[in-house]
Amino acid sequence: MRIPKPVIDSQYRGEKILDFDVGEDTLVFLVESNRVFWSGGTIAHKPEIFKLPPKVNLIKKVVAGYKSFACVTGIFFLSISHLAVENNEIYFRHNFLQFQKENKDTGVQSADNSIFNGGQIIDIGGSYRNKYAIVSNR
Protein backbone atom coordinates (compact mmCIF):
# COMPACT_ATOMS: atom_id res chain seq x y z
CA MET A 1 0.00 0.00 0.00
CA ARG A 2 1.30 3.45 -0.95
CA ILE A 3 1.03 6.11 1.72
CA PRO A 4 0.73 9.72 0.49
CA LYS A 5 3.49 12.10 1.54
CA PRO A 6 2.60 15.58 2.77
CA VAL A 7 3.57 18.53 0.59
CA ILE A 8 5.80 21.10 2.27
CA ASP A 9 3.81 24.33 1.91
CA SER A 10 5.68 26.84 4.07
CA GLN A 11 6.18 29.32 1.17
CA TYR A 12 2.48 29.68 0.37
CA ARG A 13 0.72 28.61 3.57
CA GLY A 14 -2.67 30.25 3.96
CA GLU A 15 -2.92 31.34 0.32
CA LYS A 16 -5.61 30.09 -2.00
CA ILE A 17 -4.60 28.13 -5.08
CA LEU A 18 -6.20 29.89 -8.05
CA ASP A 19 -5.12 27.60 -10.89
CA PHE A 20 -3.13 24.39 -11.32
CA ASP A 21 -2.22 21.85 -13.95
CA VAL A 22 -0.57 18.45 -14.00
CA GLY A 23 1.69 17.23 -16.80
CA GLU A 24 3.94 14.24 -17.16
CA ASP A 25 6.38 14.48 -14.24
CA THR A 26 5.36 18.12 -13.62
CA LEU A 27 2.88 20.01 -11.45
CA VAL A 28 2.42 23.78 -11.62
CA PHE A 29 0.10 26.03 -9.59
CA LEU A 30 -0.75 29.71 -9.11
CA VAL A 31 -1.48 31.22 -5.69
CA GLU A 32 -3.44 34.38 -4.92
CA SER A 33 -0.29 36.53 -4.51
CA ASN A 34 0.38 36.06 -8.28
CA ARG A 35 3.24 33.64 -7.61
CA VAL A 36 3.76 30.37 -9.46
CA PHE A 37 5.14 27.18 -7.89
CA TRP A 38 6.19 23.97 -9.59
CA SER A 39 7.38 20.51 -8.71
CA GLY A 40 8.33 17.32 -10.44
CA GLY A 41 11.14 14.85 -10.69
CA THR A 42 13.40 15.07 -7.65
CA ILE A 43 11.48 17.92 -5.98
CA ALA A 44 8.12 16.12 -5.95
CA HIS A 45 7.14 16.98 -2.37
CA LYS A 46 8.63 20.46 -1.98
CA PRO A 47 7.36 22.82 -4.68
CA GLU A 48 9.74 25.57 -5.77
CA ILE A 49 8.82 29.10 -6.69
CA PHE A 50 9.09 29.91 -10.39
CA LYS A 51 11.47 32.88 -10.42
CA LEU A 52 9.60 35.31 -12.64
CA PRO A 53 10.85 38.82 -13.41
CA PRO A 54 9.91 41.52 -10.89
CA LYS A 55 6.59 43.27 -11.46
CA VAL A 56 5.23 40.60 -13.79
CA ASN A 57 1.69 41.30 -15.04
CA LEU A 58 -1.28 39.42 -13.65
CA ILE A 59 -0.98 35.71 -14.41
CA LYS A 60 -4.13 34.38 -16.02
CA LYS A 61 -3.21 30.74 -16.72
CA VAL A 62 -0.71 28.05 -15.75
CA VAL A 63 -0.13 24.88 -17.74
CA ALA A 64 2.05 21.77 -17.42
CA GLY A 65 3.31 19.43 -20.11
CA TYR A 66 6.00 16.80 -20.52
CA LYS A 67 8.67 17.80 -17.96
CA SER A 68 7.84 21.45 -18.69
CA PHE A 69 5.41 24.16 -17.66
CA ALA A 70 4.34 27.67 -18.55
CA CYS A 71 2.31 30.63 -17.31
CA VAL A 72 0.59 33.31 -19.35
CA THR A 73 0.12 36.90 -18.26
CA GLY A 74 -2.38 39.33 -19.65
CA ILE A 75 -2.63 43.09 -19.56
CA PHE A 76 -5.28 45.08 -21.38
CA PHE A 77 -4.62 48.39 -23.11
CA LEU A 78 -6.56 50.56 -25.53
CA SER A 79 -5.53 50.30 -29.16
CA ILE A 80 -5.58 53.15 -31.66
CA SER A 81 -9.16 52.18 -32.52
CA HIS A 82 -10.01 52.37 -28.76
CA LEU A 83 -10.66 48.65 -28.48
CA ALA A 84 -9.36 46.73 -25.50
CA VAL A 85 -6.45 44.55 -26.63
CA GLU A 86 -4.63 42.03 -24.49
CA ASN A 87 -0.85 41.74 -24.62
CA ASN A 88 0.35 38.34 -23.43
CA GLU A 89 3.71 37.34 -22.04
CA ILE A 90 4.50 33.64 -21.70
CA TYR A 91 7.07 32.47 -19.16
CA PHE A 92 8.18 28.85 -19.14
CA ARG A 93 10.87 26.27 -18.38
CA HIS A 94 12.28 23.34 -20.28
CA ASN A 95 11.37 24.57 -23.78
CA PHE A 96 7.59 24.55 -23.41
CA LEU A 97 7.51 26.82 -26.49
CA GLN A 98 10.06 28.34 -28.82
CA PHE A 99 11.53 31.10 -26.69
CA GLN A 100 12.57 34.62 -27.60
CA LYS A 101 14.51 35.34 -24.39
CA GLU A 102 16.16 33.23 -21.70
CA ASN A 103 17.48 34.21 -18.28
CA LYS A 104 20.57 32.00 -17.90
CA ASP A 105 20.65 32.53 -14.10
CA THR A 106 17.09 31.36 -13.41
CA GLY A 107 16.40 29.16 -16.44
CA VAL A 108 13.24 31.16 -17.16
CA GLN A 109 12.44 31.33 -20.86
CA SER A 110 9.94 33.80 -22.27
CA ALA A 111 8.10 34.97 -25.35
CA ASP A 112 5.27 37.36 -26.09
CA ASN A 113 2.23 36.97 -28.28
CA SER A 114 4.21 38.05 -31.35
CA ILE A 115 5.06 34.34 -31.77
CA PHE A 116 1.34 33.98 -32.60
CA ASN A 117 1.33 36.99 -34.97
CA GLY A 118 0.17 39.26 -32.16
CA GLY A 119 -3.00 37.30 -31.45
CA GLN A 120 -4.52 37.21 -27.99
CA ILE A 121 -3.91 33.88 -26.23
CA ILE A 122 -7.32 32.50 -25.28
CA ASP A 123 -6.05 29.18 -23.94
CA ILE A 124 -2.78 27.26 -23.82
CA GLY A 125 -2.11 23.70 -22.82
CA GLY A 126 -0.24 20.53 -23.36
CA SER A 127 -0.31 16.84 -22.82
CA TYR A 128 2.66 14.54 -23.03
CA ARG A 129 4.81 16.14 -25.77
CA ASN A 130 1.99 17.91 -27.60
CA LYS A 131 1.36 21.57 -26.83
CA TYR A 132 -1.25 23.95 -28.17
CA ALA A 133 -2.40 27.54 -28.05
CA ILE A 134 -5.84 28.83 -29.01
CA VAL A 135 -5.33 32.34 -30.32
CA SER A 136 -7.71 35.08 -31.45
CA ASN A 137 -6.32 37.32 -34.17
CA ARG A 138 -9.15 39.88 -34.11
- Overall mean pLDDT score? 81
User: What best-fitting shape do the alpha-carbon axes yield?
Assistant: globular
Determine the number of helices (DSSP H or I, runs of at least 4 residues).
0
N-C termini distance = 53 Å
Structural class by helix and strand composition: mainly beta
How large is the share of residues in beta strands? over 45%
Biggest beta sheet attributes: 5 strands, antiparallel
**Helical fraction:** under 10%
Structure description:
By secondary structure, the chain is mainly β. It has one domain. Helices cover 0% and strands 50% of the residues. It contains no helices and eleven strands. A five-stranded antiparallel beta sheet has the order 5-6-7-9-8, with no helix packed on it. Strands 1-2-3-4 form a four-stranded antiparallel beta sheet, with no helix packed on it. Strands 10-11 form a two-stranded antiparallel ribbon. The radius of gyration is 16 Å and the shape is globular.
What does the secondary structure layout of this molecule look like, with pairings?
Elements: E1 17-23, E2 26-31, E3 35-39, E4 48-49, E5 59-65, E6 68-78, E7 84-93, E8 101-102, E9 109-112, E10 120-127, E11 130-136
